[in-house]
Amino acid sequence: MRLTIVYTETDYYQGIYWILKEPTPTAGVFREAITRVDAVDWLGLAYNMSLPTLAIYTDKRVDELLTTLVAAVAVQPPDTGYDTGDSTMATGFDKDDTKTESVYAVLAKLCRSEFGRIYITRSTVTPYLEFESRNSGPLIPAAWIRSKISWTSWS
After folding, report:
1. Nearby residues of 82 by Cβ (< 8 Å), 6 or more positions away
2. Rounded to whole angstroms, how far apart are CA atoms 43 and 120?
3. Positive or negative CA dihedral for 57, 59, 60, 65?
4. How large is the C-alpha radius of gyration of the chain?
5. In order of start, what are the domains of the chain with their CATH numbers?
6. For residues 54 and 82, what is the distance between their CA atoms, to the nearest angstrom?
7. Per residue in 22-65, pLDDT tens?
8. Of the candidates 85, 83, 110, 80, which has an alpha carbon nearest to the alpha carbon of residue 95?
């Protein structure tokens, strides 16, 4: 399923989603007729994917390990864009358990090792899986962020 928003004659692709289970319509006899559809983006799909068997790699950057992992899964993300990793990992995929871990869990471990982040980016071309290394993006001191936060009372 693809969600597209058109704004000033430009298509903005907000995401490509996978439907995980059968839609469940309600009859709507006494209330509004509704069909519930549970759909996830590629990271949500990765959360439910079991980890494929991968070889153990040595002296690789996180972007290289991500490329290897994503290429080995059954369903590929629509597109990818990875920053070059800042660190070289001594080993990769050596402690990952294919019986208990998901693809998402290994993606999270790789990002934590790099102090990077991985997310789905929306664009006018296609949504894609993006990895940012620890030194990409704006450098905002944590003290500045804390000073700009204001708390609102919710009632």
Report:
1. 63, 66, 67, 130, 131
2. 8
3. positive
4. 20
5. 2-148 (3.55.50.10)
6. 20
7. 887 877 777 777 887 788 888 888 998 889 989 999 999 999 99
8. 110
CB within 8 A of 154, min separation 6: which ones?
none
CA atoms within 13 A on the CB side of 72: 19
Give CA–CA dist 135/138, Å, rounded: 8
Residue 133 backbone dihedrals phi, psi, to 5 degrees: -75, 170
Burial pattern 61-84, b for ≥16 Cβ within 10 A else e, equals bbbbbbeebbeebeeebbebebbe
Q: Which helix or strand (DSSP H or E) is residue 102 part of?
A: none
Which token pair is 138?
């704006």
Q: What is the tens place of the pLDDT at every residue in 87-103? A: 888 898 988 888 889 99
- Burial readout 30-48 (b: 16 or more C-beta within 10 A, e: otherwise): eeeeeeeeebebbbbbbee
User: What is the C-alpha separation between 50 and 98, in angstroms, rounded?
Assistant: 7
